[in-house]
Amino acid sequence: MSMFQDFLKSGESNERRCDTPEALEKRRCSEKNIFNPEPSVDPLKDAELQNKKENVVQLRPQNLNLKLRVGVPETFTVTFKRAEGYPIDLYYLMDLSYSMQDDLEKIKTLGQEILNTLMRVTNKVRIGFGCFVDKVGMPYVSTVKAKLANPCPSRLDTCQPAFSFRNVLRLTEDAREFREQVSKQIISGNLDSPEGGFDAMMQVAVCQDEIGWGNVTRILVYTSDDTFHMAGDGRLAGIYQPNDGKCHLNRYGLYDKGNEYATMTFYYHDYPSVGHLSRVLSANNIQLIFAVTEKSVPAYKALSELIPQSVVGELKNDSSNVVQLISEAYGNLSSTVLLEHLEAPQGLNISFKSHCGNGEPSDWKKSGKCNNVKIEQQVSFTVSVTASTCLSKKELFFVKVQGIRDQLKVNVETLCACNCGDREEGSPSCNGNGNLECGVCSCNKGHLGQKCECQRQGARNTTLTMEALCRREKDSQLCSGQGICECGTCVCRGHFRGNFCECDDSSCGRHNNKICNGQGICDCGTCKCHANYIGPTCECSTKTDKCTNKDNVLCNNHGDCECNRCKCHAGFIHDFCTELVAPCKTYQKCVTCTVNNELKAGDVGNCTKECGSAKLVHIQEPTQFYSNAQHMCSSNTLTRTFTHPIGAIDMTALVLGSSVSGVVLIGIAIIIIYRVLLEVYDRREYRRFLLEQQNVQWKENQNPLFKDATTTVFNPLHSEY
C-alpha cells in the first residue's frame, strides 16, 4: 500500500493505493512509502512428541500464531504419533428392551473379560455401564397403568418400568463392582421396534462429570438388536421441542427432562438428529462402537458413515462375542487417524494434505486422513489456511485428531490495517474533520468522504455507500474515470457529462472531417441528425434532387438513388446512369455480323443473337448524334450507328409470361369442363335411383322354420264348471 499523501490522482478511490509493490513503484511510489506487511507462522508451544507416563504428547505443535494476507495461503505442518499404552475409558451402553433378555444375562459375566482384553493394549482401563429403553409415552411405551408397572409381553414375566436412559455405573477400574451393578439390572419393554438410543448416547456424551470421563481415549460401546428413533420422531407423541444437547440426569442417574404426570414421565425434548449427535461425540472425543445383531447391521453401517470415528460390529444373538468384537473394533479405530479443524471463523478456507508414510502425499482435502497407522508410527499433515476477507479481530480455531484429547490451538489475524507511525490528528488534508494516517483520512463521527468533506446523512451512510452512487456498475470506475465523486455525486471533467460522467459529446463519428457531418448534434456518443439526413455520422441525405434528370426520371431507370447519388446498375455510368460502359466493344460482334450480312445478302435478320435489342441504322453525317443512346462504331471501312433503346421490352420475359398464362388458362378450362360433366353424370344417376325406388314392391311371407315361443298345455283331468 502507498503511504504517500498525494499519490492518488483526482477522482481515484483509496483502493487504488493497494497494489503489488512492483505496480506501485511503476506509478512513481518510492519504496520507503510502500507498506507491505509479511504473513507469518509463529509457534508459541512446540513440545516434542513423547510417551512419558506423567506427560503424554501425541500432537505437535500445540499452539501457534498465524498472520495472513487476504488471498495469500499460509501453510504449517502438524505431526501425530499415537502413544503406546494410552489409558482407555470404556462405557458400555445396553438396550434393555425385552428382546435383549438373553444378552443381559451374558453381559453380567463379561466385565472382567473386557477389562483383561483391553489391558493387553494399555496399562489403565476403566469401565462403566448404562442402559436405555425409550421415551415413556405413546406410541413408544404403553401408558396403560398395568403396562407401565410391568411392560413385559406376558404377565407371567417380570419387567422393570420403561425409562429413557439410566447411568447405572460410573467409569471404574473395579470389575467386581461392574458385575454386581449389572447383575441387579432387570429387563424392560416397549411397544415399537425402534429404540431411544440417541437420547442415551447424547446424555453419555454431555454428562462428563456424571459418567466420569477422563482425559484419555474414550470409547462408547452401544449394543442393540433393533434400529433407532431420531429427530422428528418425537412428534408422534406431540413433542416439538428440539433436543438441547445438555445433561439432564437426576440424582438417581435417570434422564429427567420432563414432568410427572400421573405415573408417566412426559419428555419435552425430541430425539437428537444424526448431525447433532455426531458433533457432540466429536467435540467430546468419544469413539463409538456399534455392536448390533445381523438384521440391524445395514442401518447402523449407514449411520456410521455419518459419524466420524465410529465402527460397526455384528453381535451374536446372545452377545457371546462382544469381547472379541470390542477388541477388533478398537483396533480399527486406533489404526485410523483423522485430522480436522474445529470452530474456524467465517472467511477462512482450511484444507489438509496427508503424509502417511506410504509414498506420495494426498491431494488437498477438507480433512486429513491416514489408515492402517500402527502404535508409535509417526504421520504428518500439511495444513493450508487462506483468508478470503479481512477478519474484524483476532480469531481462534483448533486442529485435532478425532477421538484424541490433544489439540493444536491456532490464533489467526489478518494483516489488513496499516501501522505507518505518521498519524496527524485534525489534518488540513482531511478538512479538519479527521486524522491523516498512511496517506488516508480517518474521518471523525458525522463526516465521511476521501477527505472527510461530506456530512453523514444516516446510520447506513458510509464512504462505500457514497462511492457506490458514483459507479455505473458494481465493478466500474468512479464516475467512469472522467470525474470525481463528491459526497455521492459525480463532478465531471471537460466535455463529459451524465450522472456517471459516461457521456462524451465529442466522441461521435466524423464525415468530411466534421462531427456528425455538420448535419447533426452529438449526444452522448450518438449522432442525432437534422431533417433529411440519416446514418451513423449523418452522412446520408434523404433527398433525390441530384438523382433526377430533366425528364424527372430517377437515375434514368438504370440505377438506385442512395444518399442523393445514383448508384448505377452493371454496364451503366455517369451521374444519371445515361451511358453504357465501352459500347463499341460490347456490340462489336453485332456490328460485324450486321455488316457481313449486308455485304452478302442485304439482310440483317440473322444477327438477333449477337445484337439483342440493339438496332443499327445508317447516318449521313457520322458526327451528328441525336441522343446518348446512339453510338457510332465502325467495322473495317464501314461506319454504322446502333441504337440501344433504354427500357426496351424483354421479349424472353414476354414469351415466357405468355406461355405460363396460356397453360394456366387451359388448366382452368379443363377443370371447369370436368366439373360440368361430373355434375351431369351425378344428376342422371340420382334420377335413375328415384325411378328404381318407385318400382320396388315389399311382400310379407311366413318363414317355414319359425316356431312360436309360446306353448299351451291343458290338464286332461281339469273340467270346466
Put the structure in a nutshell.
The protein has 15 helices and 41 strands.
Walk me through the structure.
- The termini are far apart.
- The longest helix is centred in the C-terminal third of the chain and has 44 residues, at 651-694.
- With 721 residues, the protein is an alpha+beta fold.
- 21% of the residues lie in helices and 26% in strands.
- A hairpin with a 5-residue loop joins β19 and β20 (407-414).
- α3 runs parallel beside α10 (322-334) and α6 packs parallel to α8.
- The strands form 15 sheets. The chain has a 6-stranded mixed beta sheet, with no helix packed on it. The protein has a 6-stranded mixed beta sheet with strand order 9-8-7-10-13-14, sandwiched between helices.
- The protein contains 15 helices and 41 strands.
- Residues 258-266 and 623-628 have low confidence and may be disordered.
- Disulfide bonds join 152-159, 207-247, 416-420, 438-479, 443-452, 454-470, 485-490, 487-516, 492-501, 503-508, 522-527, 524-555, 529-538, 540-547, 561-566, 563-607, 568-577, 584-593.
- It is found in: Cell membrane.
- The chain crosses the membrane at residues 653-678.
- Residues 12-22 have a biased composition (Basic and acidic residues).
- Residues 675-721 form the Integrin beta subunit cytoplasmic domain.
